[in-house]
Specification:
heterodimer, A: 106 residues, alpha+beta, five-stranded mixed beta sheet, 3 helices, 5 strands, globular, B: 409 residues, alpha/beta, FAD/NAD(P)-binding domain, 11 helices
Chain lengths: 106, 409
């Protein structure tokens, strides 16, 4: 199973085993990772599961959809590497993925 | 600091209260009582991805089951409160147990309104609020079956969309002259009527239901005038009633919900209410109301937890909501009630547009269909009670970013 590392805004790392097909957001919720609220439960409606994707994985993870990009355009503290973790599905080739959570989701 | 918190209702609001208490470092006992067998779960997908079969039940859970043991939250499922004794600070459950509390949170939500018509007790007349409801629906919703949806609110229309996609023959009966009449303006209503008709659903507006026909099991729906629409399955989605009975019996002040203050505190200083059941001040609108949404459940839970901890309340969000039907994502910010002007931005024919609702020139709400910028900037405009010229909102050559920058400075 692919491993995902969640890094919080203080730099603390948490490594978890993820299941293919689940999203990076769902994996975080399942493992009680702090810093991801996911109020809407993954409907791409609330932008409270914002993460920064490690640059080494940028190409593999791919680009956000138009809807997700629009949500990100207006979210707080957005960077080049910002994604909504509810829109990233776990796959084998994402093994080792590192994502960092922002200081606040609101 | 209180030692024992009992939360009645293990839905999104009740769960959130427990999570926020633990997150804030509450060290006392937390008991979460729910009448369903499942731990707290998300309800919105029930009429969407879960009904469609695209999501398994455990993916709906707000926290994994282990969370409750690991965080010392006692989860009592399959149990309901039958009486609250405010003076003794206890609550009695239908299992016979009595629980003592220092602080009580009532988050028992609402129940689907029943139709008082002949035949309402027939089999295969369903409602849609719980996992069990949808599991029953799924078992009867076979391709080719005739589904009649009574009530064209969000749940009814979402279920109708799934029904058509599952290959059912769907009819929607709505008593009002437009769909979504309680929650959105006529432009949105007309758009969704068109979308559903295009997908093959028979939408009857102004329909007067007279009775359900059938012996034992429903076989049809009789309308005023005598027409009978054949039905193997009926879904009734005509709104909900807050479960206030035990709060009323206990002597808490109730109206259309349990009356709470800005901190979700009821008329008793040690009792809070959150979620669908709470009649609360609506900060952005200068009035009170009862909201049925994820936003309201989460915010109410956080507010109640903060009040119990004696900490600063979280910042209040503008009410927000979403609905998925076919390939369309509707995102709503604000409450449109009281609008005196609506502004259409974009062309509904392109399936990407928004409707802004204004009151005395102030943006009070937005409904955005496949239009995230309109939703997000609109939400900020509503929060700021911003004034934007209707001509500017309607002008697609001005980006939402620019509209936001100008209005919000």
């Amino acid at each position: 199973m692919p491993k995902i590392t969640y890094i919080d805004s203080t730099g603390k790392e948490r490594v978890v085993e993820a299941k293919n097909g689940m999203t990076v957001m769902e994996t975080a919720i399942k493992h009680n990772i702090p810093g991801i609220d996911a109020d809407c439960g993954g409907a791409c409606a609330c932008a409270t599961c914002h993460v920064y994707v490690d640059e080494a994985f940028a190409d593999k993870v791919g680009k956000p959809s138009a809807m997700e990009q629009s949500m990100l355009d207006f979210a707080e503290n957005v960077k080049e590497t910002s994604r909504l973790s509810c829109q990233i599905k776990v796959r084998d080739d994402l093994d080792g993925l590192k994502v960092t959570t922002p200081e606040s989701q609101h | 600091m209180p030692q024992r918190v009992v939360i009645l209702g293990a839905g999104q609001a009740g769960g959130q209260t427990a999570y926020s208490l633990r997150q804030a470092g509450f060290e006392g006992a937390i008991t979460l009582v729910g009448d369903e067998p499942a731990p707290p779960y998300q309800r919105p997908p029930l009429s969407k991805a879960y009904f469609k079969g695209e999501m398994e039940a455990d993916r709906l859970f707000l926290k994994p089951l282990e969370y409750y043991a690991e965080h010392n939250v006692e989860l009592l499922t399959g149990k309901a409160a039958t009486a609250i004794d405010l003076a003794a600070h206890t609550v009695t459950l239908d299992s016979g147990e009595t629980l003592a509390w220092d602080k009580l949170v009532i988050a028992t939500g609402a129940r689907p309104r029943k139709l008082a018509v002949e035949g309402a007790e027939l089999r295969n007349i369903a409602e849609l609020r719980t996992l069990a409801d949808v599991d029953r629906l799924k078992a009867t919703a076979m391709p080719g079956a005739q589904l009649v949806v009574v009530g064209a609110g969000y749940i009814g229309l979402e279920a109708a969309a799934v029904g058509v996609q599952l290959g059912l023959k769907v009819t929607v009966l709505e008593a009002m002259p437009q769909v979504l009449s309680r929650v959105a303006g006529p432009e949105i209503g007309a758009f969704y009527t068109h979308i559903h008709r295009e997908a093959g659903t028979d939408i009857r507006l102004g329909a007067r239901l007279e009775a359900f026909e059938g012996i034992g099991q429903v076989t049809g729906v009789r309308l005023q005038g005598g027409e009978i629409i054949p039905a193997e399955l009926v879904l009734v989605g005509v709104g909900v009633l807050p479960n206030i009975e035990i709060a009323l019996d206990a002597g808490l002040v109730c109206g259309n919900g349990i009356v709470v203050d800005a901190n979700m505190r009821t008329s008793h200083e040690d009792v809070y209410a959150a979620g669908d059941i709470a009649w609360r001040p609506l900060a952005h609108y200068g009035r009170e109301g009862r909201l049925e949404s994820v936003h309201n459940a989460i915010e109410g839970g956080k507010l109640a937890a903060a009040a119990i901890m004696g900490s600063n309340p979280p910042a209040l969000d503008v009410p927000w909501f979403w609905s998925d039907q076919f390939d369309l994502k509707l995102q709503t910010a604000g409450l449109w009630t009281g609008a005196d002007e609506t502004v259409l931005r974009g062309d509904p024919k392109t399936r990407s547009f928004a409707v802004f609702y204004l009151k005395e020139g102030v943006v009070i709400a937005v409904d955005a269909v496949n239009a995230a910028p309109e939703y997000i900037v609109g939400k900020k405009l509503v929060a700021a009670q911003a004034r934007v010229a209707p001509g500017e909102l309607a002008d697609k050559s001005i980006s939402m970013k620019d509209i936001g920058a100008r209005a919000l400075g």
